[in-house]
Amino acid sequence: YSYYNISVCTYSIYAYYNIPVCTYSIYSYYNISVNTYSIYSYYNIYVCVDELTIIDILTRRSYFQRREIAFEYEKRSKKDMITALKGALSGSLEAVILGLMKSTAQYDASEIKGSIKGLGTDEETLIEMVCSRSAEELVEIKRVYKELFKKELEKDVAGDTSGDFRSLLLALAKRDEPSNIVDYEKIDQDARALYEAGVKRKGTDVATWITIMSERSVPHLQKVFDRYKSYSPYDMQESIRKEVKGDLEKSFLTLVECFENKQQYFANRLSEAMKGKSAKEKVVTRIVVSRCEVDLMKIRTEFKKLNQKSLYQTIAEHTKGDYQKVLLSLCGGDD
């Protein structure tokens, strides 16, 4: 337990942190009315916006606690807190804070919708959101997507993609039953089928790859990919790079990377997004917001292994201002 104090005007909050969950500490005890007062004060008493108070409160609460604060805010001010946040914030900080006001599934569904909305498709986002999510996560995302947008996710994806790329995304989206079953009798059969559908022949039997990678459990596929090496001179990722190109290649690679080590995949994505002088803010925001209550602590660990530098230090070097502050707070500390 650590002791925490927020001072707003002459009003102090004293609360206790619980044991850290994910990358930030969720309060086991916190005062909703006082938290609401802290945010409400700066909108209504001083007119100006205190971004640091907003960051400090909203990044250190769970989604359910943030929703309670929003409910209390509306009771007190007769205004919607999300609308108030939209009016008070802008740019990348606004994107992070508004993202935090959604559940993980709501955020993922909104990102998918955004990737296929309007002219053109943001394939990078669509691939990440569909190919990196587990069957269980996709079941919830589909439910929330229909609730939010009154449409079936599969139909929207089908209308905005084509060919084998569309077939793969739809096969993944249609998975309904999360499973950890390993069918030991099929491990060798599946490994051989993947080899014979790709590297062994001229051209690629993409349908076979899609069937195996969308219908088998993650533990099963991990063993299949290991067995695959006894048939092919290349591992599964190398085989994908040789056999397919474009969005289909990126999709299969994302799948295999996540099957093998999902947190390492996200660590790689973050590393790539912060290679230049400035960060690719959209990618960094999406990963940090969507994984902060899922597995960001593990992603931090993988990031340090890959880069010999912590995620916290890298964010500090490649971002600035309030955007930097909100990301560092969500990151939860240095390693």
UniProtKB/TrEMBL annotation:
InterPro entries: Annexin, Annexin_repeat, Annexin_repeat_CS, Annexin_sf, ANX5. The keyword Plastid does not apply. GO terms for cellular component: cytoplasm; nucleus; plasma membrane; vesicle membrane. Keywords: Annexin, Calcium, Calcium/phospholipid-binding, Repeat. It comes from the Eukaryota. One of its GO terms (biological process) is negative regulation of coagulation. GO terms for molecular function: calcium ion binding; calcium-dependent phospholipid binding; phosphatidylserine binding. Belongs to the annexin family. It comes from Oncorhynchus mykiss. The keyword Calcium applies. This is Annexin. A pair of annexin repeats may form one binding site for calcium and phospholipid.
